[in-house]
Write a structure and sequence with these properties.
Formate dehydrogenase/DMSO reductase fold, elongated, disordered C terminus
C-alpha cells in the first residue's frame, strides 16, 4: 500500500513539475514575443522616417538641379538628418542586415551629390525609396505583426503607396516649377501620378473610415490636403507649359499633404505600441511602386 501511495505521489510530483515547466516556458515565449514586437515597431518607426526623409531629399534635389538654389539649404539639412537617422537605424544586426547594408551603400553613393541629370537623379531616388518601402512592408508582415488586419494592411500598402506617388508628384512638379516650364512628357507622367494618388487615397480613406486605427480628424485633414494637392497639380502644373507657381510654394504644399498621410502611419504605429499586436491570417498586397 505504501508503494502505491509513493508511486501516486511521484506521478503527482511529475505532473506538477511538468505543469510548472510548461507555464514558465509559456511566460518566456510570451516575453520573447513581446520583445520581438517592440523591436519590430521600432524598426517600422525608423523605416517610416527614412522613407519620408528620402522622399523629401528627392524633391529638394530635383528642385536644385532644375535651377532653384533657394532649396539647397533645405537639401543639405535633410541630408544631415538622413545621415543621423541611418546611423541609428535598428536594422544593422537584424535578419534584414544584408538588405539594409545594400540600402545604406546606395545612400552613400546618392548623397555624394554627383548626379547632374534630373532624370537620373529621380530614377536613383525612386529605386532607393522603393527598396526602403519593400523593407518596411516585410517588417510589417513578419511574425507577430497584424499584417492581415484590413486596416493595418491598408496603412502599409495603400497609405504608404499614396504617399510615395504624392512624393513622386512633388519631386517632378518641383523640378517643373523651378524650371518655369514643362514638357509634354513631364505632364503625361504628372497626370499619371495624379491618377494614382486619387485612386489609392480614395481607397485608403474608405477603408480607414470604418476602422479604429486612424482618428477621424486626421483622416479629414489628410483627405482635404490630398484634394488640395490634386487641385494644385491640375491648376498650376497641368494647365499650361509655362509654370508660374514658385517651386518652394509647390514643394511646401505637397509636403504638407504627404505629412498628413504619414500621420496616419504614425497613428497605426502608436496603436501598435499602446495596445500590442496580434497576428492574423493573410498578408497585404504586394507594393507596386515602379515610377511611370
Amino acid at each position: 500500500m505504501a508503494t502505491v501511495d509513493l508511486g501516486f505521489s511521484f506521478v503527482i510530483f511529475l505532473g506538477v513539475t511538468l505543469a510548472l515547466l510548461l507555464t514558465l516556458l509559456h511566460f518566456r515565449q510570451h516575453r520573447q514575443s513581446l520583445a520581438r514586437q517592440v523591436q519590430q515597431v521600432q524598426q517600422l518607426k525608423s523605416l517610416r522616417a527614412l522613407v519620408a526623409g528620402l522622399q523629401r531629399h528627392r524633391g529638394l534635389s530635383n528642385g536644385v538641379l532644375a535651377g532653384d538654389e533657394s532649396m539647397r539649404p533645405g537639401l543639405e539639412k535633410t541630408r544631415r538628418e538622413l545621415d543621423g537617422l541611418i546611423s541609428d537605424m535598428p536594422l544593422a544586426q537584424s535578419i534584414y542586415q544584408e538588405r539594409w547594408v545594400a540600402l545604406v551603400d546606395h545612400w552613400q553613393r546618392l548623397r555624394e551629390d554627383r548626379i547632374r541629370e534630373p532624370g537620373d537623379n529621380l530614377a536613383q531616388h525612386h529605386t532607393i525609396i522603393r527598396n526602403a518601402i519593400f523593407l518596411l512592408q516585410d517588417v510589417a508582415a513578419a511574425e507577430g505583426m497584424p499584417s492581415g488586419h484590413e486596416t493595418y494592411a491598408c496603412i502599409w500598402h495603400d497609405v504608404i503607396q499614396a504617399a510615395e506617388w504624392a512624393g513622386q508628384a512633388r519631386a517632378l512638379g518641383t523640378g517643373m516649377a523651378a524650371a518655369g516650364r514643362s514638357t509634354a512628357a513631364q505632364r503625361v507622367r504628372l497626370r499619371f501620378f495624379h491618377q494614382k494618388i486619387r485612386q489609392l487615397s480614395d481607397k485608403a480613406f474608405a477603408t480607414l473610415s470604418s476602422g479604429s486605427v486612424a482618428p477621424e480628424p486626421h483622416l479629414a485633414r489628410a483627405q482635404a490636403l490630398v484634394n488640395r494637392l490634386l487641385g494644385d497639380i491640375e491648376t498650376d502644373l497641368l494647365g499650361d507649359s509655362i509654370i508660374v507657381i514658385p517651386a518652394q510654394t509647390y514643394f511646401s504644399n505637397a509636403t504638407a499633404t504627404i505629412d498628413t498621410l504619414f500621420v496616419l502611419v504614425d497613428d497605426a504605429l502608436h496603436r501598435l505600441e499602446t495596445t500590442g499586436v496580434r497576428r492574423t491570417s493573410g498578408k497585404p498586397a504586394a507594393l507596386q511602386l515602379n515610377p511611370a
